[in-house]
Amino acid sequence: MVGIVSYGVHVPWYRMSRKTLGEAMGWFTPPGAAGEKAVANYDEDSLTLGVNAAMNCLGGLARDRVDGLFFATTSASYKLRGNAEIIATALDLRPDIRSNDFTSCTKAGTSAFLTACDTIESGSSQSVIVCTSDCRLAKPGSTQEQIYGDAAVALLLGKDDVIATLEGWYSLSYDFPDYWKSEEEIFEHSWEERFSRDVGYTKFIPEAISGLLKKYNLTIKDFAKIIYTCPYTREHASIGKTLGAEANQIQDNMITTMGDSGTAYPLMMLIEALEDAKPGDRIMVVSYGGGSDALSFLVTDKIEEVKKKEAIKTSLALRKELSSYERYASFRDILPIEKGIRSEYTEGTPTQISRLWRQRRAILALVGSRCKVCGTPQYPPQRVCVKPGCGAIDQMEPYRFSDKKGYLFTYTADNLAFTINPPQLYGVVNFEGGGRFWFDLTDCNQDSLKVGMPLKMSFRGKYFDKHRGIHGYCWKSVPVL
After folding, report:
1. Which domain holds residue 312?
2. pTM (two decimals)
């Protein structure tokens, strides 16, 4: 049967306490929920989060076997340009794959998952990766600003070596206008909070669960874990009682540790459940938004082979407190700041679209070259081998650096170059297996850097050309702590 072969997550390094949010906007709005939420760095968006989750998912697996990629988000970088195609290029997947974007409601994540399963069941694809990600811009002082968190999940689906099989599903489709945003708007709108809470979450989720149980002749007691995406703590617990489930069957909603991650939210909770699951466990996952999808999974004995990933636990442990609301607002470009003349010159440089197309593997997938004569990897791609004593000409093969481990050879901090999160950090990276190049360093402090420390590559935003509506992406180095 079709199921999950591998999983990966990406939770941003930064966390913001809701106390910090309350102190900044407390004069306008009452305090929100307790705990903290995950906050994307200034160089992250839904697309970069999705790429990095997929990198974790595909670690050690043959990428040439992946013949489909579906991307789900409500905060896409582009409205007219395939976001899934950018992710596929960054992952260095084959060009003859099936790709698609799913968007417009938070149920899009489970919708993409079900579509991928249908694609595999039909035989038109053997292996599909589903990326779900959100980095939503919330209006200052809103309930959404308190609740929303940024994160991404990637799931590789197939029929072989699955860790959890999809046993059944039940879907609801409602035009329920609790949250919406038109094409021209930056911030979303919401109707009265209790309308969404009392008419939406507390009605649709039980209806979807009841439909799933009836469709497959199951009871609530058949499930080891029940996952549903209600961000309201009191109502989340109330739904479980209404269903007749025991407290230990209900998966924690992660609001206090990460926040509501939109399309990724139900699948993020699924991965957290899989980290503690045993073979034979049945898990239910229920999404919300434009109705609801209820999915039933059965955990296989293969789960023991992937538990070492501990994706959620590890990601939540790697954190940095973002204690400044003003910095958070500048990351989101909500708070305009003086960027200086150096930034003005940089922002005025046009993106060379033709060159980006020709060098897409080098720029978006971090593919260099390796000499067939001496075996030396090099980046960027070369025609003439750089190794002294070799100098072979046009004897190169493609060589991908994005999934290689690196070590910090040397570094510097630049206080003159503009960055929204100063200072600008650069490092020369030696790659395991050969190859050396310099990269921006991110998700780190200057004082934490040490020569020789291990690094990994992370897909990030380099700039946003507002005049032409172009997002520039690149690879940066992140310390492995």
Report:
1. 3-174+189-330
2. 0.95
